[in-house]
Every structure is written in structure tokens, then in C-alpha cells.
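Researcher: Let's do a round of design. I'm pasting the C-alpha cells now; please hold your answer until I've finished.
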């Protein structure tokens, strides 16, 4: 193999650890941004972003929708995955192949081979929107990792341990950053601090996060 070809194949993203089985791939999604952005417009046209209600009756500050066989929903009765979008009354839009291949490639980049996402939750943050500390535990099994793609405005991500009160690490997720975690970290608490106002050339005045999981059986 020539030196040139080898250089071309070197991963461009650089990988940081956030503890065991948790990684940030800086800028990993940049080469896919145009494809992802185009597909995203199709998805939100079919299943629009909406502010869901928490089981406690509060309106979430983050607007959400889904793509894939299963979609995550919250309402007064609780959190769950469903095949039907309650807003459109139809199945969630099919997961675009560009989404799936980005998620699978990020997972295998850090050693999680065979990731098969069947759910992609799309989070839309405007200035002030936040996601309080939570665990992702509505999936059927925890054997597969979670892959989370950040687009647009930067946000401060908190990453803690298995107890809500554990000390949290914080890192700023920038446009194109991809977080992958699984294994012993799969149920760690995490959250997003209130988004600061700003403008990004691709997304405008918002941050978009795509979170891929294997939710079903
Ligand atoms: C967000 N992310 O970045 C919210 N969950 O907007 C999450 O809640 C999340 O980034 C599980 C794994 C990775 C994540
Ligand atoms: Fe989460």
C-alpha cells in the first residue's frame, strides 16, 4: 500500500475517552453532514418535530421526532418505544441509509461491531433548551451501544455514573462530534446544559442531536 493511500485511510476524527466504554469521536460526522441534513428534512416533513409531555405533565424544552422502525415517545402515561408516530398516526419514517451507515461506522470505529440501530431519536434544541440528567433505559436490552451525533450549535454534555448523584464529567459537543457508549457505561446518567444562543451555518439557531439505539428485540 502506498504512503498516500495510507494517509487517505487514516481516520480523520480523533477519539477521546470519557471513561470505560465511552468515547467522543471529534468531527466524525463532518463528511456526512450534507447527506444527513438533506435526509433530515424529509424525515421532519413526514413526522414533524414536537414538544412531548413528560409523565409528570411538563412540556419538554427539546422538540423531538424519530426515524426507524421504533420511535421513542413520552406522554402522561410514561416513556416507551412505539412503531407508530402518535402525531401522524403512521409508522415513523424509514431510517435513511446515510443515517444507518454513519451510526454503524462510528460504533465499529471504537470496537462495537455489529451495531444494528432500529431507532433514531432526533432532538432539536433552541436557545435555553436542556435535557436534565437521565439514563437511557427504555430499550429492550443493553447489549448494543448508543451512538449520538451532534449537529449545529455547541452544547455542554454532562456524563456521570450509575447513580444520579455521581460526579459528572463535562465536555462541549461541537458540530460533527459523535459520542459512542455501551458496555459498562451503557446506563450512565447524562444530560445537556441549557443551549446558549448562536447561529450555525448549517442548522441556523439550533442544535440537532441524533441518538441511535437498538431498542427492539
Ligand atoms: C443530546 N443525548 O445529546 C442528548 N443519550 O442531545 C442523549 O441523551 C444521549 O447523547 C444516550 C447516549 C448519548 C446521548
Ligand atoms: Fe440520553
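Researcher: That's everything. Go ahead.
Model: Designed sequence:
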Amino acid at each position: 500500500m502506498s504512503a498516500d493511500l495510507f494517509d487517505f485511510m487514516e481516520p480523520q476524527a480523533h477519539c477521546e475517552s470519557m471513561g470505560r466504554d465511552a468515547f467522543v469521536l471529534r468531527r466524525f460526522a463532518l463528511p456526512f453532514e450534507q447527506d444527513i441534513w438533506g435526509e433530515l428534512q424529509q424525515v421532519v416533513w413526514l413526522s414533524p418535530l414536537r414538544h412531548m409531555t413528560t409523565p409528570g405533565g411538563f412540556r419538554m424544552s427539546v422538540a423531538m421526532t424519530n426515524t426507524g422502525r421504533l420511535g421513542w415517545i413520552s406522554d402522561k402515561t410514561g416513556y416507551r418505544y412505539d412503531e407508530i408516530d402518535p402525531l401522524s398516526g403512521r409508522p415513523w419514517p424509514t431510517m435513511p441509509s446515510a443515517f444507518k451507515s454513519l451510526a454503524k461506522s462510528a460504533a465499529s470505529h471504537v470496537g462495537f461491531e455489529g451495531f444494528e440501530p432500529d431507532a433514531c431519536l432526533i432532538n432539536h434544541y433552541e436557545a435555553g433548551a436542556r435535557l436534565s440528567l437521565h439514563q437511557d433505559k427504555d430499550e429492550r436490552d443493553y447489549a448494543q451501544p448508543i451512538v449520538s451525533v451532534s449537529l449545529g450549535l455547541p452544547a455542554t454534555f454532562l456524563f456521570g455514573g450509575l447513580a444520579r448523584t455521581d460526579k459528572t464529567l463535562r465536555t462541549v459537543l461541537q458540530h460533527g462530534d459523535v459520542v459512542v457508549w455501551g458496555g459498562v457505561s451503557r446506563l450512565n446518567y447524562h444530560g445537556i446544559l441549557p443551549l446558549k444562543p448562536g447561529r450555525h451555518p448549517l442548522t441556523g439557531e439550533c442544535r440537532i442531536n441524533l441518538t441511535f439505539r437498538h431498542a427492539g428485540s
